[in-house]
Design a protein that fits this description.
Layout (H helix, E strand, L loop, with lengths): L5 H8 L7 H8 L1 E5 L12 E8 L2 E8 L5 H6 L7 H16 L4 E7 L6 H5 L2 H12 L6 E10 H5 L6 E5 L3 E3 L3 H8 L6 H8 L3 H6 L5 E3 L5 H19 L3 H13 L2
Parallel strand pairs: 3-4, 4-5, 5-6, 5-7, 6-8
Antiparallel strand pairs: 1-2, 2-3
Helix pairs in contact: 1-9, 4-6, 8-9
């Protein structure tokens, strides 16, 4: 079905049939070895992080994932990362820099987990550090939003050299429900809020917020095509000197 409105795109981005970040990682990356914990407090199951091979090229992967049932969604806070998760991702990204491995970030989150414990453990600081240090990583860094890309919780892992979105995905500073509540205090205006937020891949590509729109992954051939595309983009980015890579990344985000 063609999604003609922004709100239809919102519903498609949240569809339970969409591939999970965890499943995509295991299908996309050969020999994926998951790493756990932030080496400070705890391990956040909403964040997957590890190493593997992308077409025989060593790569570090970080991502935020929802669950596929009630139990796993509760375990992963419905795809909302805690400070422990962002610090885990940063730990693995620093490791990637040390061993000169490119970083692939795969994102599907409504936003950072907003509970009191996360605030007590420095949620704002963890998100800010992820953005700040991501902008300074001395290795190629590609981010893909495959479903929801909510606010700073998504931006924390979407500060790469190139950012892409799946066809049925959204990326915004606020959910349309939150926008409708703040602006009009009327839940019936959520579809209008979605339009005004400009959260669709098409709108964001036009504004040069993202670098491209990728097909949905539904079968093995889609995975193979995505693997080929990412391998090609990483190969191109690796040809750029570290100085130029960082300079181009800084310029990319200064536009915003």
């Amino acid at each position: 079905m063609v999604k003609n409105t922004a709100y239809e795109k919102v519903k498609a981005a949240r569809d339970q049939g969409k591939i999970l970040t965890t499943d995509l990682v295991h299908q996309l990356v050969d020999g994926f070895f998951e790493l756990h914990g932030d080496r400070l407090d705890a391990d956040d199951h909403a964040v997957i992080a590890g190493i593997g091979y992308l077409k025989n090229q060593p790569v570090t992967v970080v991502g935020i994932s929802k669950g596929n049932d009630t139990e796993s969604n509760i375990d992963r806070h419905f795809g909302s990362a805690t400070p422990f998760g962002y610090r885990k991702a940063l730990r693995v990204m620093h490791q990637a820099e040390k061993f000169n491995r490119p970083v692939l970030a795969i994102i599907n989150t409504p936003g950072a987990f907003p509970d009191v414990e996360s605030e007590y453990h420095g949620q704002g600081s963890a998100v800010a550090q992820s953005i700040l240090e991501g902008l300074q990583l001395k290795v190629p860094y590609i981010s893909i939003i495959i479903g929801e890309g909510g606010s700073g919780g998504a931006l924390a892992l979407a500060s790469g050299d190139e950012v892409y979105m799946f066809e049925d995905s959204i990326y915004s500073v606020l959910s349309p429900e939150g926008y409708a509540s703040i602006m009009w205090k009327d839940s019936k205006k959520v579809p209008q809020a979605a339009e005004e937020l400009g959260l669709t891949p098409q709108s964001l590509l036009k504004e040069e917020i993202i670098d491209g729109i990728l097909p949905e992954v539904k079968d093995e051939s889609d995975v193979a095509n995505l693997r080929e595309f990412l391998s090609s983009r990483f190969s191109e980015l690796k040809k750029i000197t570290v100085t130029d890579l960082l300079a181009k990344r800084q310029l990319r985000y200064e536009k915003f």
